[in-house]
Amino acid sequence: MSKSLLIVESPTKAKTLGRYLGKDFMVMASVGHIKDLPKSKLGINLEDEFKPEYQVIRGKKKVINELHDAASKADAIYLGPDPDREGEAIAWHIAEEIRAKDKPLYRVLFYELTQKAIAEALSHPKELNKSLYEAQQARRILDRLVGYLISPILWEKVKRGLSAGRVQSVALRLICDREKEIQKFDPEEYWTIDAQFMAKEGRESARNFVAQLFKCKKKKCKISNEDEANEFLEILRPLSYTVESVERKKRKKNPAPPFITSTLQQDAARKLRYSARQTMSIAQKLYEGLEVGEEGAVGLITYMRTDSTRLSGDAVQAAREHIQANWGKDYLPSKPAVYKSKSSAQDAHEAIRPTDVNRTPESMAPYLTREQLNLYTLIWKRFVACQMSPAVIAQTTIDISAADFIFRTTGSVIEFPGFMTLYVESQENGDAVEGNEGYLPELVEGQSVNLLGLESKQHFTQPPPRFSEASLIKELEELGIGRPSTYATILSTILDREYVRLEKQRLHPSELGWLIDGLLVENFPNIVDVEFTAKMEKSLDEIENAHYPYLKLLKEFYDQFSKSLEAAQTNMLNLKGVGWPTDLKCPQCGLPLHIRWSRNGPFITCSGYPECSFSSDYERDAKGNVRLIETPSTGETCEKCGRPMILKRGRYGTFLACSGYPECKTTRSPSSGIPCPREGCTGELVERVGKGGRRFYGCNKYPECKTVFWGKPVKKTCPVCGSPVLIEKVSKRSGVKLVCPNTSCKYEEKEQSEAVETQSD
């Protein structure tokens, strides 16, 4: 019996497709890329038109052999990796490796994994897309040139393991530039005055309401300090107030478009606190298929890497029928809503939507994890809401006047919720609020109102906010930096490299990030230039659309880049040697102090070294200025040279270092006085900090002893097994308690309470 071979990149996707296709198809997975550039060398022939030297990825030879054998037995071969640049590259590499020249070979694009979409794709197969592959190859080569050629310079000048990336470096610059704006920002004081009024007559109008001083002598009021505010209060108190104007209007609020990749990542970050990487990982599973009861493996959403807001006619019709059935005709507009995609969008793709609107979140709840259900619910609601009627909001603006002063109050009420019944688009600081929600009293022009009281309030202008993951993705998209497939990788890379840290959902540049950004801006200005990078992204789009030769882009880039590369080898500051100059002077000899980098992180040292051996830890103040940190005396001496040991802070917590550094490089963990509970170990438990910034406690005899605790150790003997320490454990339900670290002992006690023994018999 004849069979066709369908090759996709994911085993899960293969399983879902296999369920629909039955016995006529063999469905196999490449398990991602099968070829890539080598890790051990540049892998690009600069003398032969930037020819990439792809190698079979380690461990993929067996997969390739299996695909080759299956292809030799098949009547036709269909390549179905994801419908984007990366998927096209996988398809090309599979075609090269299986070498099925005597068999018909087709490219199929699955934008959703449903019976109808799969049948449609297989009924209209395509050829491999050379332009799309060249766009991916150009991006891969550009990224390799930047990463592979700049990174070794950073290893030499700063420390090993660092990386520079074509797009990640621009993202880092945006974060650092925003931090500089915040540091330079000088807050300005200003005051506002609120008045509480009550109408003199009329039952409905007898409600109290608050208005704010808006105009003084036909100009917007500006009150700079408390003295000025008090002067205004004295003038305003004796005046008589009347309603000058009442403006009532209704406005429509339209629903947001269906999700594209960037808006899904932004909304998931704001509403669900998911990172971009987490969002894409969950979305991938929803797209490739999950077990849904008797249905088996089902793809629940359309392809999740897209910048198109287009929706298929069938999907729109299904949504309209669902709205009519569940909310009624008032919630269904007379015509379907159509959303315009940006000019660079790939309109062959659809927006991210559920594959079947009748698979409601409630019906999917038994089959999905909490995280999967949360994201599916977000996608489902946004899709349905985008086809619902607009909300109608009644807005009232009332001006109250007295002499040359006008107070204004604005209120808004949702008269008809429309799509807002189901979904409200999130903003950076939470869901959007429609004005001062609530009714204002029924007032008419010329009506007198009583002044019940005045209140002045002090305010300060605020600096621009630090980027969150959501707002950085939005900024990158608006600037034309990156593409749907790259946003999550950009963020995860700068976080994993510890160039930035996430604090209270905001991105802060680390000291390492500051220094790397400074070095790149100084030595590779084009690489970190927003406009240059956006232009490169646009050129890649033009290559994809067969409007720009990809070799021309590579040559233009490398001609300029190679010159910067050569100059950086000589001119880039060496943070291991000379260091980064600061404005501070050495307290011992008066020479400038420089920032240098050691294996324990950055530190301040005298530029006169080795004649002057002064060194110190440092920190930055709110303005970004470098300040020395006084090193507290520990009373301990170096076992090698006899100099005093001082307490220092490194990337993994505090440690003791010889004050004779860099002549003497002795370091050790500070004494805690808490013994390691491991039997036979003579070490002590000391505080450490992991790569993600999480604190833990480990034995100072590491690596000989690998004892580790996430809770704080307390020097207290377990009354059951005799362990010399107990470990602090904190939970919302039971508060703080001490538990025995011995896994065979179940002893625990609540702090400041009687012990509770739960040891089993």
UniProtKB/TrEMBL annotation:
Catalytic activity field: ATP-independent breakage of single-stranded DNA, followed by passage and rejoining
Chain intervals for the UniProt region annotation (Interaction with DNA): 163-168
All residue ranges annotated as the Topo IA-type catalytic domain in the record: 129-565
CDD domains: TOP1Ac, TOPRIM_TopoIA_TopoI
Catalytic residue positions: Y303 (o-(5'-phospho-dna)-tyrosine intermediate)
Any one GO BP annotation for this protein: DNA topological change
Record HAMAP family: Topoisom_1_prok
UniProt name for this protein: DNA topoisomerase 1
Native source organism of the sequence: Desulforhabdus amnigena
Gene: topA
